[in-house]
Specification:
CATH topology of the largest domain: Aspartate Aminotransferase, domain 2
Number of domains: 2
Structural class: alpha/beta
Number of helices: 13
Shape: globular
Helix content: 25-40%
Order of helices and strands: HHEHEHEEHEHEEHHHEHEHEEHEH
Largest sheet: 7 strands, mixed
CATH superfamily of the largest domain: Type I PLP-dependent aspartate aminotransferase-like (Major domain)
Strand order of the largest sheet: 1-7-6-5-4-2-3
Strand content: 5-15%
CATH architecture of the largest domain: 3-Layer(aba) Sandwich
C-alpha cells in the first residue's frame, strides 16, 4: 500500500518510493535499460520501455510529483516545453480555440504564435487580472484556458480564482504553469485547477544540470497526455529522472531559502534611487489582487527590475557584478541574471515585448540560496 504523508518535506523525500529497497539501496538506482522483459502485457503502453515513461525511475517520480501537487497522477517529460506542447495537443485539435494569458514564458508564447496557425488551432491572449474582459474572447470551440501562477518575467499574479470559476462556468480545462511558485508556495489543484505544468529544469530539480518537465492532474487527463507523448517522443531518460528525483528531496528547504533571499533582495532594490521599477509579489502593492496573494505561502526566488538609465545602464550594471553570473534559465542554487529581451523573450517582436512591459532594460534576477548579504553587497557595488 502506498504511504501517505501530510508534510511537504516528508513527501519530497518519501512519497512515491518503492515499497522495498532494491538490494538494500537507500537511493533508487538508475535503470539505464531501454527495454524490459515481457511479462504478459496485452497492451503496448503497458510494456516496460523508456519511451512509455514507465521504468522504475519514471514511476517513482510520478508518485512523488502527484503527492507534492495533490494530484491523482503525474507525468514527467523531456522538457518543460514537451509538457506544455504535449498537454495542449492532447486537449486541442484543429478548429479548437485557446485562451492564454498575455504575458507568458517566451517559449510558450512562440509555440502559440508560430505553430498553432499551421495546426489549425486558434488562440486569443487575455489579461489574467481582468476577468470581465475574458467572456468577449470566448468562441464556440474554446476548450482550454492557460495561465501562469507567477508570470515570466514580470512576476504578476493574475486573478487565479476567477480563472477556475470562469473555466467551470464555460466548460473549459484550466491549465496553470506553476514553475515559479513550485508546490512549496502554491498548490493550484487544491484551488480547482485541472492540470498543473512545470519546467522541472528549474526549481524542482534545482541544480542547473538537467532539462525536464511535468504535468500533474487527474488520472484520466494524464493517461491521455501520456498517450499523446508516446507519439511525440518527449520521454525523460532514466539518468535525468534520477537527478530530478534527487533534486526533489531538498525542494522544501531550497525554496524556502529562495523565498527569504528574494524578499530581502527585493526590499533592498526597492529602496535604491537607481532602480525605477521592481517586480516581486512579496512586496505587495496595487498591482496584485489580495485575494490571490493569500493563496501563496511564499513568492519564490524570481524578481525583475529596471534601472533609471534604461538598457545601457542595465548592461553596465551586469558587467560590474562579481558574484552574480549572467545566464538564462533559473531555479538553481546559484544566483543568475539575464535580460529577457535578449534571452527568454527574444522571440517576441519588439512591439509585442514593449506592449507587455518587457523593455530592453528589464533585468530578471533568479535569486539563489547563497548568503543574502553577499548578494546584496554584490548588487550594491554594481549599482555604483
Amino acid at each position: 500500500m502506498a504511504r501517505e504523508f501530510e508534510n511537504l518535506d516528508t513527501k519530497a523525500i518519501h512519497a512515491g518510493e518503492l515499497e522495498e529497497n532494491i538490494e538494500g539501496a537507500i537511493t533508487l538506482p538508475i535503470f539505464q535499460s531501454s527495454t524490459f522483459l515481457y511479462s504478459g502485457q496485452s497492451r503496448y503502453e503497458d510494456l516496460k520501455y523508456i519511451r512509455l515513461n514507465n521504468t522504475p525511475n519514471h514511476i517513482v517520480l510520478h508518485g512523488k510529483l502527484a503527492a507534492l501537487e495533490g494530484g491523482e497522477a503525474a507525468l514527467v517529460t523531456a522538457s518543460g516545453m514537451a509538457a506544455i506542447t504535449g498537454t495542449l495537443l492532447t486537449l486541442l485539435s484543429a478548429g479548437d480555440h485557446l485562451l492564454a494569458q498575455d504575458c507568458l514564458y517566451g517559449g510558450t508564447h512562440d509555440l502559440l504564435t508560430t505553430d498553432f496557425d499551421s495546426w489549425g488551432i486558434e488562440y486569443d491572449f487575455i489579461d489574467s487580472s481582468n476577468p470581465s474582459s475574458w467572456e468577449e474572447k470566448l468562441k464556440p470551440r474554446t476548450k482550454v484556458i492557460l495561465v501562469e501562477g507567477i508570470s515570466n518575467p514580470l512576476m504578476k499574479i493574475g486573478d487565479l480564482l476567477s480563472v477556475v470559476e470562469f473555466a467551470r462556468e464555460h466548460g473549459l480545462v484550466s491549465l496553470i504553469d506553476n514553475t515559479f511558485a513550485t508546490p512549496v508556495n502554491f498548490n493550484p489543484l487544491k484551488h480547482g485547477f485541472d492540470l498543473v505544468l512545470h519546467s522541472c529544469t528549474k526549481y524542482l530539480n534545482g541544480h542547473s544540470d538537467i532539462v525536464a518537465g511535468a504535468v500533474v492532474g487527474t488520472r484520466s487527463h494524464i493517461r491521455r497526455i501520456n498517450r499523446k507523448l508516446l507519439h511525440l517522443g518527449g520521454s525523460l531518460d532514466p539518468h535525468a529522472c534520477f537527478l530530478l528525483h534527487r533534486g526533489l528531496k531538498t525542494l522544501g528547504v531550497r525554496v524556502r531559502q529562495h523565498n527569504r533571499n528574494a524578499l530581502a533582495v527585493a526590499r533592498f532594490l526597492h529602496d535604491q534611487p537607481a532602480v525605477s521599477v521592481i517586480n516581486y509579489p512579496g512586496l505587495g502593492g496595487l498591482t496584485h489582487n489580495a485575494r490571490n496573494l493569500e493563496l501563496f505561502r511564499g513568492f519564490g526566488g524570481m524578481l525583475s527590475f529596471e534601472l533609471a538609465g534604461g538598457a545601457e545602464a542595465a548592461r553596465e550594471f551586469v558587467s560590474r557584478l562579481k558574484l552574480i553570473q549572467e545566464a538564462p534559465s533559473l531555479g538553481g542554487v546559484e544566483t543568475l541574471i539575464t535580460r529577457p529581451a535578449t534571452t527568454s523573450h527574444s522571440g517576441l517582436s519588439e512591439e509585442d515585448r514593449l506592449e507587455l512591459g518587457i523593455g530592453d532594460g528589464l533585468l530578471r534576477l533568479t535569486v539563489g540560496i547563497e548568503g543574502v548579504q553577499d548578494l546584496i553587497d554584490d548588487i550594491s557595488q554594481a549599482l555604483c
